[in-house]
């Protein structure tokens, strides 16, 4: 009720333990706080907060137009509502290495369990679009070192994303991943891997946990959880899946409403009022209210 009972520190320790558990951690992307509660209820291990989703929610393309305060604000809204750890897409750190350092502390204050920084040129592009470019590896290393130095909670996970595979090839992506791990990154996010062989090569080259991005309609083959676990991937994100499902359902529903003049035929496709109230913990709120506000004038 009201918010999660677990503290941010507890969630961060839970995230660390999950990465070290040997079991694949599954983090679907939440597009708002309510969807994060649904992710938790369905038994997933964590929640991902996608920059692409936040951009789309604001009616913007994913090209680095959002600000650090917008990302931190939405992250705080989502993190406070779930017992699960949250991993936040922090793009390129929103500027120079000092900006990346500030981003870490803002997301710590927001209650996130971790964040990832990427090595794209700022402003960035969606990792599955053509035309992106990466900075020199030493610049990305400075971003990571600044982030690691700035964190106050040592359990806050700092992940390093490299987009180099689609730009310079897999070998360069592996070399960068090694350098980022040496710079202090706790988790490596190799973006736009084409299939199992790319993940296997990355896994063989690194001693730190790795992340797989299973986003739809992109450059990566959509691998099932068991395949990823067998390769040795530690974390999989499904960043835009829920938003795409929700928007398609909304589009179909609005079309039917416009054509038929009523939503009567859509009721079986809707979340029932009682299901929504259960997800929102209405009964607990009522009990709390009665216990606290119990006088009569």
UniProtKB/TrEMBL annotation:
It catalyses: 3-hydroxybutane-1,2,3-tricarboxylate = pyruvate + succinate; (2S,3R)-3-hydroxybutane-1,2,3-tricarboxylate = pyruvate + succinate. Coiled coil: none annotated. Pathway: Organic acid metabolism; propanoate degradation. InterPro entries: ICL/PEPM, Isocitrate_lyase_ph_CS, PrpB, Pyrv/PenolPyrv_kinase-like_dom, Pyrv_kinase-like_dom_sf. One of its GO terms (molecular function) is methylisocitrate lyase activity. Keywords: Lyase, Magnesium, Metal-binding. It is an enzyme of class 4 (lyase). Pfam families: PEP_mutase. Its cofactor is Mg(2+). Its EC number is 4.1.3.30. GO terms for biological process: propionate catabolic process, 2-methylcitrate cycle. PANTHER family: CARBOXYVINYL-CARBOXYPHOSPHONATE PHOSPHORYLMUTASE, CHLOROPLASTIC (PTHR42905:SF5), PHOSPHOENOLPYRUVATE CARBOXYLASE (PTHR42905). Catalyzes the thermodynamically favored C-C bond cleavage of (2R,3S)-2-methylisocitrate to yield pyruvate and succinate. Involved in the methylcitric acid cycle. Catalyzes the cleavage of 2-methylisocitrate to yield pyruvate and succinate. Belongs to the isocitrate lyase/PEP mutase superfamily. Methylisocitrate lyase family. This is Methylisocitrate lyase. It comes from Enemella evansiae. The gene is prpB.
């Amino acid at each position: 009720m009201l918010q999660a009972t677990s503290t941010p520190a507890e969630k961060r320790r839970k995230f660390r333990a999950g990465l070290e558990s040997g079991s694949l951690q599954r983090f679907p992307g939440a597009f708002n706080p309510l969807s994060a509660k649904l992710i938790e209820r369905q038994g997933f291990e964590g929640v991902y907060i996608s920059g692409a989703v936040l951009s789309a929610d604001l009616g913007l393309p994913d090209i680095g137009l959002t600000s650090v305060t917008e990302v931190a604000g939405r992250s705080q809204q989502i993190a406070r509502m779930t017992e699960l750890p949250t991993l936040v897409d922090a793009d390129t750190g929103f500027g120079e290495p000092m900006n990346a350092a500030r981003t870490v502390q803002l997301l710590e204050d927001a209650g996130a369990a971790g964040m990832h920084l990427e090595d794209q040129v700022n402003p960035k592009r969606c990792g599955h679009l053509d035309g992106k470019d990466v900075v020199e590896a030493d610049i990305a290393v400075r971003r990571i070192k600044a982030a690691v130095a700035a964190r106050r909670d040592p359990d806050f996970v700092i992940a390093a994303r490299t987009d180099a595979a689609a730009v310079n090839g897999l070998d360069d992506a592996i070399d960068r991943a090694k350098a980022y791990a040496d710079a202090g990154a706790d988790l490596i996010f190799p973006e736009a891997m084409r299939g199992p062989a790319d993940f296997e090569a990355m896994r063989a080259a690194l001693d730190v946990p790795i992340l797989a991005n299973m986003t739809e309609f992109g450059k990566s083959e959509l691998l099932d959880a068991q395949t990823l676990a067998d390769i040795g991937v530690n974390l999989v994100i499904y960043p835009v899946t829920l938003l795409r499902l929700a928007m398609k359902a909304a589009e179909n529903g609005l079309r039917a409403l416009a054509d038929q003049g009523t939503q009567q035929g859509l009721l079986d496709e809707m979340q029932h009022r009682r299901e929504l109230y259960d997800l929102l913990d209405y009964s607990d709120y009522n009990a709390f209210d009665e216990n606290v506000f119990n006088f009569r004038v």
